[in-house]
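Batch manifest, entry 17 of 40.
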Amino acid sequence: MTFGETYRGKRVWLTGDTGFKGSWLAFWLHRLGAEVFGIGLEPDTAEGPFVRADLPRLIRHETADIRDAARMLALARDFQPDVVFHLAAQALVRHSYAEPVETFDTNVRGTAHVLEAIRQAGQPCAVVVVTSDKCYENREEDYAYREEDPMGGHDPYSASKGCAELVAASYRRAFFAAPGRVHLATARAGNVIGPGDWAADRIVPDAVRAIRAGKALSVRNPRAVRPWQHVLEPLSGYLRLGQALLEQGARAAEGWNFGPDPASARNVGELAELFCRAWGAGATWQAMPNPANPHEAHLLQLAIDKARERLAWHPKWNFDTTVQRTAAGYRTMLTARNVEAVRAFMNDEIAAYEAAT
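Output type: structure tokens
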């Protein structure tokens, strides 16, 4: 899937540009010719794409917290975006147990601050609010959740994403219903993996840290099934959704799922096994004996029929390709000698994805 001239010259406001997905999206938007204004907290690590690719030299970036309502309004009025991608979030399930108020404050009130800033700035624009596949009321049945299914969430993270969906729906109906003004959609992605993610308590970053330390990866819930997808898959969905909002307006202003094909919904043990094999020598894993863990869902699937039929979007890389490219990508980024090498890798990875069928 390519995007032609859709984003060339467009003023794109991207929240969460220092994060894993945000960094890749910022780079892709720059590649598409957009004028990108990214905001985010200070990056957690110098090994992620934001630092390794020196993104502040490619885009305009400011350190800012979406919990600061006045700052969000000032930035929205200053930049006057044509397109907004809202990715900034507290993105970790386990951290939400330790810091539930922070999680709700960031994911719910922070989302409201961004949308209120857009409302008060008064600039017509397309807005994509990224939430999560965990926004649904998950009954852990053999069922792929559809966009019309109810919001919910057992843990604070999942509940906060369900709340963010409700906030976005409220703004869409109460403030953004006027034709020709702001068109707002939400995007719910699966479990994203890919080179450059260093978040705590995520299976692939944990695996790479274990390998580098000469240890076996300890897996908490090897039987838990997740809809795994390469980072470029949902990002292509967000870009396609932004394109649809620009072209179709209110007809695309809804909630959308961007997940893998059903065959890529595999358990954590299968992911660990394939990743270790793709990495090669020194990579092993083991099930954690008697883990004392807070509740995490054991089964989660997404239906993507709507995006296939109405957006002509579909996943391109299957489970094996996703895991193999992820392992190879980590190796490349870890051994890249300079910024130019990292940018060349990211550019080639996006080009390979765009060329895939």
